[in-house]
Write a structure and sequence with these properties.
heterodimer; A: about 110 residues; mainly beta; 6-stranded mixed sheet; 11 strands; B: about 120 residues; globular
């Protein structure tokens, strides 16, 4: 079992719609959770981090964390073509190592 | 505020050779982590340096080694290169001292290594 699992996609949404990206993790003791955006050929760019159960909003982005279900999600409202990228979920485990998922490819169709 | 920098941008080596990659962390950060990202995969943790010592290590062979200097910059060395070492090598820095957000990592642009 992988430490972090994501649906690789591709996920396609029309411009202006809500994109929903999901991630599950195996280490129940994990405390820190991150979403990164990676454009093709570029390095990952931090979008959000979340530590507590519930929702955290930042502009068009909302991160949701449910530790009981070991589930993290990212919602992108009013999706724009510039949001087209691969989204990486990362988790800091109890051993302080960071584990990344394989990423979900998102395409926003104009 | 300078972000994380890495050099070189691209590198081509042949099997069996050795390579050194360099990283300077973001200003105010003292912890450097290295990752390997193969095509179509997520970054895989190699190791982390703090106070010039290797603090954490992922599942990578001893051919992968590193160093951190007093100015917090870091090097990644890979010996006896294999074809499978071809990947994007990413450096990430974080404050990792205390407080919320202290473990947030910021990535450099990466070094694309091709082993022929």
């Amino acid at each position: 079992q992988k430490e972090v699992e994501q649906n690789s996609g591709p996920l396609s949404v029309p411009e202006g719609a809500i994109a929903s990206l999901n991630c599950t993790y195996s280490d129940r003791g994990s405390q820190s959770f991150f979403w990164y955006r990676q454009y093709s050929g570029k390095s990952p760019e931090l979008i959000m981090f979340i530590y507590s159960n519930g929702d955290k909003e930042d502009g068009r982005f909302t991160a949701q964390l449910n530790k009981a279900s070991q589930y993290v999600s990212l919602l992108i409202r009013d999706s724009q073509p510039s949001d087209s990228a691969t989204y990486l979920c990362a988790v800091r485990g109890t051993g302080n190592q960071f584990y990344f998922g394989t990423g979900t490819s998102l395409t926003v169709i104009p | 505020d300078a972000g994380v920098t890495q050099s070189p941008t691209h590198l081509i080596k042949t099997r069996g050779q050795q390579v050194t990659l360099r990283c300077s962390p973001k200003s105010g950060h003292d912890t450097v982590s290295w990752y390997q990202q193969a095509l179509g995969q997520g970054p895989q943790f190699i190791f982390q340096y703090y106070e010039e010592e290797e603090r954490q290590r992922g599942n990578f062979p001893d051919r992968f080694s590193g160093h951190q200097f007093p100015n917090y910059s870091s090097e990644l060395n890979v010996n006896a290169l294999l074809l499978g070492d071809s990947a994007l090598y990413l450096c990430a820095s974080s404050p990792l001292t205390s407080g919320r957000g202290a473990d947030t990592q910021y990535f450099g642009p990466g070094t694309r290594l091709t082993v022929l």
